[in-house]
């Protein structure tokens, strides 16, 4: 325990030192909420990964690979497609964000559809949907600290230790806002995905060379994917990938990454950097999980595969490093979630109906972050048997933001009536269907509740776009918004052509 907890303590101290040395007093709410739009491609790429891949990747998806096999690779598919979407969304979102000082995802929807109410609805959906995942992330730390204690702590005691550590970390998140989140994401991301990826590769080699475990030694069931005639249905995997891809940019704490960059070029470069990092880490983790299923003790506790194999291969020192990797990934996800939620409370709920100055917005955001930290910490210490089902339900609901978000960015038609009605109806349909048919819908060939609700959402949005055409003033406003994107594109091309390096 002395070795494992020393590893955790040293890592935590390093992160705090980095934050202390980089402390900058934010002069405006924009600086507090989006870091002053000042980060380059390297910070952007690592910040995205550190928020996208939480610590639960090592437990939930590592465990899924160990128990279910190749179907777990769907997470890698939609993760890579999500990065492609970042490349496509970079220009319109960043240009509108910079021009109109947008700070949150609901800010963008309010601008595109010229509606105050869509801002509130989107914020409520985002905040409510994010809480179960935040609590799950904190509870995942219970598994971490139970293994760090070598079983000396009960799970409930380990959860309380983990919650205490992550709550202490939020002191700097509250104080520094998004700037602190992105800066710490760089250090945490290096540990979680580069060092963690190297450890995964080393453990794979150890299992093959020392233990004689290969794909040939795995059960044939590990290579089965649901298809025609399967219990889940032929569209089940497609539905998982579809909702995962578009759902990624519906989470407020992921979407805000599009506002923190210092330019469109940095966002696109960050996407190019994130693809190989995501691919290498994802493949290593899932292959590790599949092979790790053959290590003693994993079959009984597949979600603990990362800790069991690490301890078996390298004793307490490697187990301590494994704990540091999971904590690094968990901190990035938790920090991003809490920071984005605090900004939304100030900007999209309170600030949407009361005129507040910059200082008041920052104070309310900090109070919101503090309140969310206390609430989620309390919930994480309770036994909530339906929490995972709530988290799945939240995912089916959050993706309903995708219709007004993506069509609003890439299609000039569409109005606030279709956006609000479609989004609200889609969310309600997703909730009802998920409660009746948890997991997937047998009568829809395996589609999830969120995918079916998306079709309802989309139908309403498109119907309203044609049945309730935009007024002349609204068309003019929309044309000007999209003209800004084209003007920025032309300026970028002119600058490239004028540069000596362009040859």
Q: Can you put this structure into words, describing what you see?
A:
Helix 6 (105-113) runs antiparallel to helix 7 (116-148), helix 7 (116-148) crosses helix 14 and helix 13 (305-350) runs antiparallel to helix 14 (358-380). 75% of the residues lie in helices and 0% in strands. It is globular and about 70 Å long. The chain is mostly helical and 503 residues long. It has one domain: Sodium/glucose cotransporter (Up-down Bundle). The chain has helices spanning 2-21, 29-34, 41-52, 56-68, 74-100, 105-113, 116-148, 155-176, 178-209, 236-248, 252-255, 264-292, 305-350, 358-380, 387-398, 402-410, 416-436, 449-467, 472-498.
List keywords for this structure.
single chain, 503 residues, mainly alpha, Sodium/glucose cotransporter, globular, disordered C terminus
| Succession of helices and strands | HHHHHHHHHHHHHHHHHHH
CATH class: Mainly Alpha
What can be said about the biggest beta sheet?
none
Number of helices: 19
Distance between the termini: 59 Å
Q: What fraction of residues sit in β-strands?
A: under 5%
CATH topology: Sodium/glucose cotransporter
**Quick one: CATH superfamily?**
Sodium/glucose cotransporter
Helix and strand content put the structural class at mainly alpha
List the uncertain runs. Answer: 493-503
Helical content class: over 70%
Mean pLDDT: 90
Estimate the global geometry from the Cα principal axes: globular
Query: From the coordinates shown, what is the CATH architecture?
Result: Up-down Bundle
Structure summary, number of beta strands = 0
Query: What gyration radius follows from the Cα positions, in whole Å?
Result: 23 Å
């Amino acid at each position: 325990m002395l070795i494992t907890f020393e590893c955790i303590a040293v890592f935590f101290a390093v992160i705090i030192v980095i934050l202390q040395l980089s402390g900058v007093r934010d002069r405006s709410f924009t600086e507090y909420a989006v870091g002053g739009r000042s980060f380059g491609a390297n910070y952007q790429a690592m910040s995205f990964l550190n928020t996208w891949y939480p610590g639960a990747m090592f437990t939930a998806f590592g465990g899924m690979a160990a128990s279910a096999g190749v179907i777990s690779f769907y997470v890698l598919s939609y993760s890579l497609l999500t990065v492609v979407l970042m490349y496509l969304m970079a220009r319109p979102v960043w240009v509108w964000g910079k021009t109109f000082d947008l700070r949150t995802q609901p800010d963008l929807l309010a601008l595109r559809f010229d509606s105050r109410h869509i801002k509130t609805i989107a914020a409520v959906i985002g905040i409510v949907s994010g809480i179960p995942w935040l609590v799950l992330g904190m509870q995942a730390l219970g598994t971490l600290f139970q293994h760090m204690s070598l079983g000396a702590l009960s799970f409930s005691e380990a959860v309380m230790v983990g919650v205490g550590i992550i709550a202490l970390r939020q002191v700097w998140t509250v104080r520094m806002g998004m700037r602190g989140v992105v800066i710490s994401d760089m250090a945490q991301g290096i540990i979680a995905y580069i060092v963690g990826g190297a450890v995964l590769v080393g453990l794979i080699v150890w299992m093959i060379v020392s233990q004689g475990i290969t794909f040939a030694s795995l059960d044939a069931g590990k290579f089965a994917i649901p298809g025609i005639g399967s219990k889940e249905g032929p569209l089940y995997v497609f539905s998982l990938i579809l909702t995962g891809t578009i759902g990624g940019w519906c989470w407020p704490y992921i979407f805000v990454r599009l506002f923190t960059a210092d330019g469109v070029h940095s966002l696109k470069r960050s996407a190019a950097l994130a693809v190989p990092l995501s691919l290498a880490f994802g493949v290593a983790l899932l292959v590790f999980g599949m092979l790790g299923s053959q290590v003693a003790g994993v079959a009984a506790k597949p979600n603990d595969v990362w800790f069991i194999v690490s301890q078996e291969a390298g004793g307490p020192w490697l187990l301590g490093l494994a704990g540091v990797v999971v904590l690094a990934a968990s901190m990035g996800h938790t920090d991003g979630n809490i920071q984005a939620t605090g900004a939304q409370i100030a900007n999209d709920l309170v600030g949407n109906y009361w005129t507040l100055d910059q200082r008041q917005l920052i104070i309310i955001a900090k109070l919101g972050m503090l309140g969310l930290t206390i609430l989620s910490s309390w919930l994480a210490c309770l036994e909530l048997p339906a929490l995972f089902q709530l988290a799945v339900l939240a995912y089916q609901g959050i993706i309903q933001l995708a219709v007004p978000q993506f069509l609003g960015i890439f299609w000039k038609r569409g109005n606030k009536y279709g956006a609000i009605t479609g989004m609200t109806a889609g969310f309600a349909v997703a909730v009802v269907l998920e409660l009746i048919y948890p997991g997937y819908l047998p009568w829809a060939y395996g589609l999830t509740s969120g995918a079916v609700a998306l079709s309802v959402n989309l139908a309403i949005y498109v119907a309203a776009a044609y049945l309730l055409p935009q007024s002349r003033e609204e068309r003019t406003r929309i044309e000007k918004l999209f003209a800004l994107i084209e003007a920025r594109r032309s300026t970028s091309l002119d600058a490239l052509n004028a540069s000596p390096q362009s040859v």
